[in-house]
Amino acid sequence: MATRLDAFLSHRGFGSRSQVRGIIRSGRVSLAGQVCRDQGEHVDGNVVRVDGQIIVEGVASATLLLNKPLGYACSHDPNEAPLVEELVPESFRHLTLETAGRLDRDTSGLLVVTSDGALIHSLTNPRRHLVKRYRVAYSGKLSYHAVARCAKGMQLEGDPNPTLPAELELHGEDSDSLSLATLHLHEGRYHQVRRMFAELGGEVVRLHRDRIGGLELPSDLMPGQMREIRASELSRLTATVD
Ligand code: URA
């Protein structure tokens, strides 16, 4: 994990990137025992000192759970701000974190943010058939065979292969007269829920993910909150059986 010296210090409370660059250029910072005036130098696990004081290295890796609020993008592009990475607590900002799959800007709910590439692979690999549960509010009327078409797998425009079998449950209406449904997917394609509903004759108005594998969105995690996953949650997360 390549962490630049300016990012390392900025994430440990030495100020903005430009303030930190001033500190580095003034010669107050040493890396592996040598004064370092290069803000782009990589820390690579070496000891960093500011004014002779060792700056403690943070945790080496982390897996975090986020209750993603509406409006945030799963991206590192500042042009797409606000970004999910802005919600990462200070003590994890020195890590290179990625989301395991993506939720659209206008989708809320459970998102895993981790420095563990193997975990991302196991959560997103369609061959594992890990279930992701979506709560959907939609307008329009779904085709008569909607449940059966989801169960069979359907062709989506632009995709060479049909979707994997998915379970659709239809519920009643909410107070805004939107129809409600739950969709269990075992893969994660681009805008998959919205595209499936469009194919079935509906339009998704609200979309919320509240389960991945055997892990429900924890009830103590308010929208916008991100915290480290607990050991018991991690084993539920990767469970393939419901
Ligand atoms: N399907 C979508 O259409 N959007 C999401 O954010 C997740 C699944």
Features:
binds uracil; single chain; 3 domains; four-stranded antiparallel β-sheet; Structural Genomics Hypothetical 15.5 Kd Protein In mrcA-pckA Intergenic Region, Chain A; 242 residues; alpha+beta; Alpha-Beta Plaits; elongated; nine-stranded mixed β-sheet
Describe the secondary-structure layout.
Layout: H1 5-10, H2 17-25, E1 29-31, E2 34-35, E3 48-50, E4 53-55, E5 63-68, E6 98-99, E7 107-114, H3 117-124, E8 132-140, H4 146-152, E9 167-173, E10 179-185, H5 192-200, E11 202-212, E12 215-216, E13 226-228, H6 231-237
Parallel strand pairs: 7-11
Antiparallel strand pairs: 1-2, 1-3, 3-4, 5-7, 5-13, 6-7, 8-10, 8-11, 9-10, 11-12
Uracil is lined by residues 103-104, 107, 191-194, 207.
Number of strands: 13
Shape: elongated
Spans of at least 5 consecutive residues with low confidence? none
Q: How do the SSEs run, as a string of H and E?
A: HHEEEEEEEHEHEEHEEEH
Radius of gyration using CA atoms only: 22 Å
CATH topology of the largest domain: Alpha-Beta Plaits
Please, how many helices?
6
User: What is the assigned CATH homologous superfamily of the largest domain?
Assistant: Pseudouridine synthase I, catalytic domain, N-terminal subdomain
Q: Look at the structure and give the mean pLDDT.
A: 92
Question: How many domains is the backbone divided into?
Answer: 3
CATH class of the largest domain reads Alpha Beta
Bound molecules: uracil
Main pleated-sheet profile: 9 strands, mixed
- Derived structural class: alpha+beta
> Do you know the CATH architecture of the largest domain?
2-Layer Sandwich
Please give the alpha-carbon distance between the first and last residues. Answer: 35 Å
Helix content: 10-25%
Strand content: 25-35%
